[in-house]
């Protein structure tokens, strides 16, 4: 792999990673007023509805960007533009069919789902979110086309626009719905329905944006096709077969991830109700777990997901080339993610109470519970990041079935652990926390072994794991002392928290440089890396 190719890989990966960070931050920002407006019970209904939507989305269209990007990338690397476009058109038809089926299942099955999840009012948000699955299927094909052509900018911009519209509409709709239905006994359900309106509006906006980009890009695409003398050597049946063979493993592996969340909702709700816990309490605890703890730990995990999405096309195109280049690429992506996951886990744990108090001032009923979840549960960030990246590495090197087996095995263990803890202990919501850590931990261990065995890859340990861990622990001490000192002097949580985060981030960055986590050459290959290398030159000598 040339230096220019490596730089382009990191650049494209960073574009999606940055977009992932921005969208997660927007998601965090708007989910804060949402959570405070909905209250504990409304958050519980919203999170269950969104979990069902996610699993349906995974089955119908979540895998399409990855699958289409892989198939298009393989053909574009051989300059087979006709075949690449042929795949794109057939993928659109595939999306129309799968999206229609998914939309129908959620809409017409909403009352049935409300019954088995034991959540009064759940059908209201489900009926509103149903059409979104259809839009997301089409959206996935367009994103896959651009990613397969090694440009992440359309996908990144569409994600940002989607999240902005989602944020505005969600907050406004919650306010309007809860005002209109203020006297209804199901006001929390209507509030959740309002919140999920933003999901539809955001997806529709993103699709319109990508359609506009496609119309602008179409003349260039047609010129590539006109110059391509390669005959269309794949029938529609062969393309659908290739799509299925690529989509199905990704669907199964991602479905297992999403099943973990929605099965937790199903298992926790029914077992706790059978133990005599009131429905409002159960919904409120689920709301605290999903809308506060899970929301915060998923922000850094978004970087792993973004890097995973950008890694698959590149790995698919180069996995049969020089082994050294492939190993170099794998090592770089894993190190990049660990350098984000470790400080995120430590920082959120150290500042758990200040952050929860700052972000969710109206949700005080289970505040101590959420703080405890944050303190002991942030290690899940590291394992989710690692499992996501290693899954994508295996998929990109045509070991599609292995992540499915690993995730399925881990899910079975997860369900057994959660059910036993809920039935025979009084841990309650903390049983979900234990399951949330062990689930990605097992997948990470199995994936890591598979990558080592099948790709003959030896993981570098010191700079990838130990240096980020040590730097994060020192950063955590600095953050704790900074917050404690500032809070003692000024007793202003907002300023104390923000200053602690800023000082901790600077300290962590300097520690990485002092401990030689990245070489000067590695820094220069990253976006803005030359400027960073010049700035840190005294420390890198």
**Can you give the helix content as a percent range?**
over 70%
Question: What are the secondary-structure elements, in order, as H or E?
Answer: HHHHHHHHHHHHHHHHHHHH
- End-to-end separation: 27 Å
Alpha plus pi helix count: 20
Low-confidence stretches: none
Radius of gyration: 23 Å
Shape: globular
Count structural domains. 2
Structural class: mainly alpha
What is the residue-mean pLDDT, rounded to a whole number? 83
Total strand segments:
0
Largest sheet: none
Please characterize this protein's 3D structure:
The chain is an all-alpha fold. The protein folds into two domains: 47-153 and 225-458, no CATH class; 460-541, no CATH class. It has helices at residues 3-62, 64-76, 81-108, 110-116, 123-148, 153-180, 187-227, 236-274, 279-318, 323-350, 352-359, 367-377, 379-396, 401-424, 429-454, 462-490, 493-514, 520-524, 529-535, 537-540. Helix 5 runs parallel beside helix 7 and helix 9 (279-318) runs parallel beside helix 13 (379-396). The model has no long low-confidence stretch (mean pLDDT 83).
Outline:
The chain is mainly alpha-helical and 541 residues long. It is built from 20 helices and no strands.
Question: What brief labels describe this structure?
Answer:
2 domains; 86% helix; globular; 0% strand; mainly alpha; 20 helices; 541 residues
Draw up the topology in text.
Layout: H1 3-62, H2 64-76, H3 81-108, H4 110-116, H5 123-148, H6 153-180, H7 187-227, H8 236-274, H9 279-318, H10 323-350, H11 352-359, H12 367-377, H13 379-396, H14 401-424, H15 429-454, H16 462-490, H17 493-514, H18 520-524, H19 529-535, H20 537-540
Helix pairs in contact: 1-3, 1-5, 1-6, 1-7, 1-8, 1-9, 2-3, 2-5, 2-8, 2-9, 3-5, 3-8, 4-5, 5-7, 6-7, 8-9, 8-14, 9-10, 9-12, 9-13, 10-13, 10-16, 11-12, 13-15, 14-15, 16-17
């Amino acid at each position: 792999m040339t230096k220019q190719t490596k730089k382009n890989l990191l650049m494209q990966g960073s574009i999606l990673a940055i977009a992932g960070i921005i969208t997660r931050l927007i998601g965090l920002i708007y989910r804060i007023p949402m959570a405070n407006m909905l209250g504990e019970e409304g958050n519980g209904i919203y999170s269950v509805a969104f979990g069902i939507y996610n699993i349906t989305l995974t089955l119908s269209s979540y895998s399409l960007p990855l699958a289409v990007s892989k198939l298009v990338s393989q053909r574009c690397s051989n300059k087979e533009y006709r075949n690449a476009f042929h795949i794109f058109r057939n993928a659109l038809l595939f999306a129309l069919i799968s999206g229609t089926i998914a939309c129908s299942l959620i809409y017409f099955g909403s009352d049935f789902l409300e019954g088995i999840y034991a959540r009064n009012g759940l059908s209201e948000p489900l009926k509103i979110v149903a059409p979104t699955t259809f839009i997301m299927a089409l959206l996935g094909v367009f994103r896959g086309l651009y990613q397969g052509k090694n440009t992440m900018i359309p996908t990144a911009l569409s994600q940002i626009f989607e999240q902005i519209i989602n944020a505005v509409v969600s907050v406004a709709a919650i306010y309007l719905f809860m005002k209109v239905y203020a006297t209804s006994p199901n006001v929390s359900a209507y509030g959740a329905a309002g919140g999920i309106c933003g999901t539809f509006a955001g997806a529709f906006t993103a699709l319109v944006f990508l359609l506009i980009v496609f119309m602008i890009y179409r003349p260039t695409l047609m010129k590539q096709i006109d110059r391509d003398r390669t005959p269309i050597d794949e029938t529609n049946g062969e393309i659908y077969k290739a799509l299925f063979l690529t989509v199905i493993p990704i669907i199964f592996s991602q479905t297992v991830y999403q099943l973990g969340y929605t099965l937790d909702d199903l298992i926790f709700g029914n077992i706790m109700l059978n133990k005599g816990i009131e429905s409002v309490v159960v919904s409120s605890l689920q709301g605290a777990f999903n809308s506060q703890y899970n929301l915060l730990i998923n922000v850094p995990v978004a970087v792993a997901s973004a890097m995973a999405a950008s890694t698959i096309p590149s790995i698919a195109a180069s996995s049969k080339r020089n082994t050294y280049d492939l190993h170099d690429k794998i090592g770089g992506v894993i190190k990049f993610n660990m350098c984000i996951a470790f400080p995120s886990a430590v920082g959120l744990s150290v500042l758990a109470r200040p952050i929860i108090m700052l972000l969710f001032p109206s949700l005080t009923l289970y505040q101590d519970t959420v703080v405890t979840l944050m303190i002991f549960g942030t290690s899940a960030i590291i394992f989710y990041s690692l499992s996501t990246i290693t899954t994508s590495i295996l998929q990109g090197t045509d070991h599609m079935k292995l992540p499915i087996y690993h995730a399925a095995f881990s899910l079975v263990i997860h369900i057994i652990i959660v059910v036993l803890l809920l039935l025979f202990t009084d841990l309650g919501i903390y049983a979900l926390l234990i399951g949330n850590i062990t689930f990605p931990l097992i997948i990470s261990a199995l994936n890591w072994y598979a990558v080592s065995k099948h790709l003959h890859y030896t993981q570098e340990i010191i700079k990838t794991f130990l240096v980020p861990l040590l730097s994060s622990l020192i950063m955590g001490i600095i953050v704790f002392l900074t917050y404690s000192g500032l809070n003692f002097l000024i007793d202003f949580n907002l300023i104390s928290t923000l200053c602690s985060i800023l000082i901790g981030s600077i300290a962590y960055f300097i520690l990485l440089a002092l401990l030689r986590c990245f070489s000067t050459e590695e820094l220069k290959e990253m976006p803005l890396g030359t400027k960073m290398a010049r700035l840190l030159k005294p420390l890198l000598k």
